[in-house]
Amino acid sequence: MWSAANRSAQEMIWMSVGEPLYRDLDRMQTAARGLIDAPDKKGALHLDPSYVPSPEIAEVDIHLQPGGYALDRGPDDIIAGVFYETGGNVFSFGQGAGKSDSKAGVIFKLLDAEFPEIKPLRILDLGCSAGAASAAYAANFPDADVHAVDIGAGMLRYAHARAEALGVGVTFHQMDASVLNFEDGFFDLVVSHNMLHEIGAEKRRLMMAEALRVTRPGGIVILQDVDTRMAPSIVHQVEKDWDTHFNGERFWNIYNNADLVADMYGAGFARSDVAEHDMAAVSGINRWYIISGRKPV
Ligand SMILES: C[S@@+](CC[C@H](N)C(=O)[O-])C[C@H]1O[C@@H](n2cnc3c(N)ncnc32)[C@H](O)[C@@H]1O
């Protein structure tokens, strides 16, 4: 009964946001195009037409989102981003609206508490989706050069238009987080939000190594995700399996069972510089799992 109700609730999210989305799509695409083409915009959008998302992402309606993350129906398409933001806001009860993002908000707290000396001037957000966290970093660190990468062109067009509409400058790139096209040591802070559970083990290890490579000596890598792996209750244990089998979350269990600390060592972080954190969301009842690592000086 619980599983059937859960599955139906998840399907209803996409039906409820999909109907108004498609009804209003022309207006939204025109508005997004206007923001993307604006001569005085604050950020930038770099799409890579040669990029072909891997089947593990492209062929899955992740958490039942129609078309998944890589959906791209043409040069003005923003559906993946609109779906992600509106569906996500139903799912999270509006915790990611506007320039505030509850996940990024937790990282601001962590930086204040554990890394107060880090005043980031170059920030990279990996797997940014609709750019909720990216916009929050740009708003919170107005002097910083904020970059964000994702694999989905439809996702990135929307993220870019969204950031411009909010008046914050973020440079968005269509790029795989496991093969970053940035020079060594470029960033003070590299983050990812809810991305570890979306990728397989090999990509995760490559992504950690890339995050370390593009971070400057003394800079910080902070990877945040769902808390199902932290002291899981019986409910968490059921949820772990359920999402893998019934919610299009192919890597959910792989994330839950991974030894992420060992992966960070394997990526090149020193043992003494890696830490795990279990933090309460800034609003709502969620807790977040976070793993951080400082690049050796
Ligand atoms: C759950 S969403 C995270 C959204 C966003 N960070 C947030 O917290 O709102 C995961 C995102 O990671 C992206 N992604 C998955 N694999 C990726 C990869 N190899 N490189 C870059 N982005 C990837 C997906 O396209 C998706 O937008």
Automatic annotation (TrEMBL):
Superkingdom is Bacteria
Q: Which InterPro entries match?
A: Methyltransf_25 (IPR041698), SAM-dependent_MTases_sf (IPR029063)
Among the GO molecular function terms of this UniProt record, one is: methyltransferase activity
Q: What Pfam families does the record point to? A: Methyltransf_25
CDD domains under this entry? AdoMet_MTases
GO biological process annotation, one example = methylation
Start and end of every Methyltransferase domain?
123-219
Q: Which UniProt keywords apply?
A: Methyltransferase, S-adenosyl-L-methionine, Transferase
- Descriptive protein name: Class I SAM-dependent methyltransferase
- What organism does this protein naturally occur in? Sphingomonas paeninsulae
